[in-house]
Write a structure and sequence with these properties.
It is a single chain. The chain is α+β, with helices and mostly antiparallel strands and 275 residues long. It has two domains: 35-55 and 191-249 and 257-275, Translation Initiation Factor IF3; 57-109 and 130-189, 2-Layer Sandwich (Alpha-Beta Plaits). The chain is 35% helix and 31% strand. The radius of gyration is 39 Å and the shape is elongated.
């Protein structure tokens, strides 16, 4: 618009009357637009909301491991002990849908030789050989490699989920008697996490409105309608872990404590300001 007016001023063919008419039309067009288009009268704030919940889902992963020369025999041993673990889990109201036992790992164990000869140097010019137990060293090595089977390690991971922490305590006591190889930390989560997160979002909006009311009052204005609401947080789940605490010296078994979790949400809200 300014460029158009400056062009007209440079052009001598335009009369003063024409310039006046053009200027009046420009002012008439500008009056059609509301004032808030040219002036930002809104207020933008962030809000934080939190919901404190108690975990109601518990997951435990343990490993059954055996070593031997024959993989088929190892599998039979691991399967037998795994079945005992699953049977113990079922006693504590664990459903088959909450038990996972499909992860199996097989690897070869590198064994160190039982007799190691160090610092022995054999020169071609010297006749003779090194003997151990009446057998030449090189011959003994070749026979050992050809006759000894490799050592295998077979392991199976079993994951069991519970809805109550007291079921976990009872199950833990049983599987320790089965002499499993490894017990992982307990994983705790919340079943209806998305529902709790939605509640946290509503609290975040209320928090933003409270902040905006105070700011508007300080600016001698009144708060209008909401112009924009934007979610600036994500319902990303971060699990919490708790170590099982048991002692052979205590006469009474430890009762696990789950504590609580805080589910938080954050929003950006823009309000209209009324003078």
């Amino acid at each position: 618009m300014n460029h158009l007016l400056s062009t007209c001023l440079r052009d001598k063919s335009f009369s003063n009357r024409t310039l006046k008419l053009l200027s009046s039309k420009v002012l008439w067009v500008l009056m059609l637009f509301p004032a808030h288009v040219f002036a930002d009268t809104g207020i933008e704030v962030t809000g934080q909301g939190e919901v404190i919940v108690t975990p109601d889902q518990f997951s435990l992963t343990l490993t059954v491991t055996e070593r031997g020369r024959v993989p088929s025999k190892l599998k039979a041993l691991v399967d037998k002990k795994s079945n005992s673990v699953i049977t113990a889990a079922r006693r504590f109201a664990a459903k088959d849908s909450t038990i996972s036992s499909a992860r199996v790992n097989l690897r070869i164990i590198e064994e160190k030789p039982s007799i190691q000869v160090q610092g022995v140097e054999l020169k071609n010019s010297i006749q003779g050989s090194v003997y151990i137990d009446g057998q030449e060293l090189n011959q003994q090595r070749s026979q050992t490699k050809s006759s000894v089977r490799p050592l295998f390690e077979l392991s199976r991971q079993i994951t069991v989920s519970f809805e109550k922490i007291d079921k976990y305590d009872g199950f833990l006591e049983q599987i320790i008697k089965l002499q499993v190889s490894h017990i992982s930390s307990l994983s705790m989560s919340v079943k209806e996490r998305d529902e709790h997160y939605q509640q946290a979002l509503l609290r975040a909006i209320d928090h933003a409105k409270t902040k905006a009311l105070r700011m508007a009052k300080q600016a001698d204005s009144s708060l209008g309608d909401i112009i924009l609401v934007k979610e600036v947080s994500s319902n990303h789940y971060r699990p919490m872990y708790a170590e099982a605490m048991m002692s052979d010296t205590n006469t009474k078994a430890h009762s696990s404590q789950v504590g609580s979790q805080t589910i938080s949400a954050r929003v950006l809200v823009k309000f209209h300001l009324e003078n």
